[in-house]
Amino acid sequence: MQRQILFFDTLRQRANMMLAHERDGMPPVLKFKYELVADAATFEPASNYQLLKILEVGDICLDECLDPEKPPVIIIDPRAGHGPGIGGFKTDSEVGIALHEGYPVYFVVFTPDPLPDQTLADVLASLRQFVEIVCKRHDERSPVLYGNCQGGWAAALLAADCEGLAGPVVMNGSPLSYWAGEPGVNPMRLAAGFIGGAWVNHLLSDLGNGQFDGAWLVQNFENLKPEGAIFRKYADLFESVDTSAERFLDFEQWWGGYYRLSREEILAIVENLFIGNRLEQGLVKLGSHCEIDLKRIRNPLVIFASYGDNITPPHQALGWIPAVYKTTEELVAADQRIVYLINHHAGHLGIFVSASVARLEHRAILERLSEIEALEPGLYEMRIDNPTGDPDCEHDQYAVRFEPRRVEDLVFNTQPDAFERVGRLSARLEAAYATFASPWVRAWSNPVTAEVLKWSHPMRVTRYMFSERFNPAMAMTAAFAPMVRANRKQPGEENRFRKAETTSVDWVETGLTRMRESRDAAAEQAFSWLYDWPSLRGSSEGEAGKR
């Protein structure tokens, strides 16, 4: 009963924290002191992005510990439903490790709402101006771009456009090959085949009065592994509420902050990248004047992926390499060097959130950047030998080596014919919706209906329903919680009921896991039945494809 009261009091605190964060304008969840360097709302073209410089860690000023010989690092956080700050929401993070290694650190954030009619090209133009500003502040030294998920492929787009980019690019859990994936393990790539493609995003943006609510994306992430995001997370909180409440609330402040994208942005992302897979084909246009070509990238690339990541598996992080460079010799002839690093256990967020990953893999990347830039052109795997298994080990207790690899050996599962059919279906449904339905939906949408839709989203309702502002019964929880903490009595580890509780939780998690695996296997089978059938051969093949 004591744990039950403390559990619900933690949910109450989360609800109030979410509401307070919303009232404050949803600032980034950075744990470091910073100053605003540039606001892209004043640029031409304008966007809702901002450039911050990290100033202090707690009360420690950084000017005395920075290495003047090291280039600046620009960390670009993902804009995929959540707000910015996850790359620096705790001391042992990408920001913290870069500062520890003596790098000047800048952080790219964004405001909750996009500017009216903001496009993906506007965002990329803002990021380019940020890079130019940082170069000027550091004697024209090219910065290191450190991109997380969406931030990583945004950096790749900058490096591949007509103007190019200088300086190393580190992409953490960043997809560039969107059709690749392991059957039954990476089901997100199949979603467009079941919902009909981009028209659903268009509809939701119209209902949002021109804005796409990031809560829909976060809901998709949770549905990928419901046994963890929907059950185990809360079961762990209940089991160890005395010690894990603070960590739970720190993470939930970021996870429960939902930002918006413009209609133009989400459609460009979905149509060009996730459904169209046009990036590795060189078909993405930046505005009306430039096609983005991954072969144009001359920056040293560091790709960090994990087999524990079911959102951006290594297939999607690395699959573009053999699609762009057919042979190793072609990669060498392009004077390009690509280094990849594989973690076998970290989940998608763990790649750029886990403290142990930051203290080992990210530290190793930053410490070896000069060696990476000095490598001969080619493909390499970065291997970290860490016999101690301790992420805090000293420099002489772990070793880093770069092993040459061949592009021809990067072979991943794809179903190009099936996904091309999904792309054609999406284009047709989107054209039909845009022509016949979208004008009517826009006519009925307004700021009031958009706000009602926003606050009625299940991702928000399931959080703010535990606030005493909406649920008077939670006031009793708030009153009892201090008394419980003052008279807390914990059962021992040998308590038979505690053991039974732990066993029951494991059983439920296992059951949910089996259900999810069956769901994903059924989805793979249904997708193959619907789209992965052989085309007619011979002279009629082209017409068959059109039909």
Characterization of the model:
The protein has 22 helices and 15 strands. The protein has 547 residues and is of the alpha/beta class. The strands form 3 sheets. Strands 1, 2, 3, 4, 5, 6, 7, 12, 13, 14 and 15 form an 11-stranded mixed sheet that branches. Strands 8-9 form a two-stranded antiparallel sheet. Helix 17 crosses helix 21. The radius of gyration is 24 Å and the shape is globular. The C terminus is likely disordered.
Distance between the termini: 63 Å
Q: Helical segment tally?
A: 22
Strand content: 5-15%
Relative helix content = 40-55%
Summing up helix and strand content along with how strands pair, one would put the structural category as: alpha/beta
Strand tally, please? 15
Largest sheet: 11 strands, mixed
Average of the residue pLDDT scores: 90
Radius of gyration: 24 Å
| Unreliable stretches | 536-547
Q: How would you sum up the global shape?
A: globular
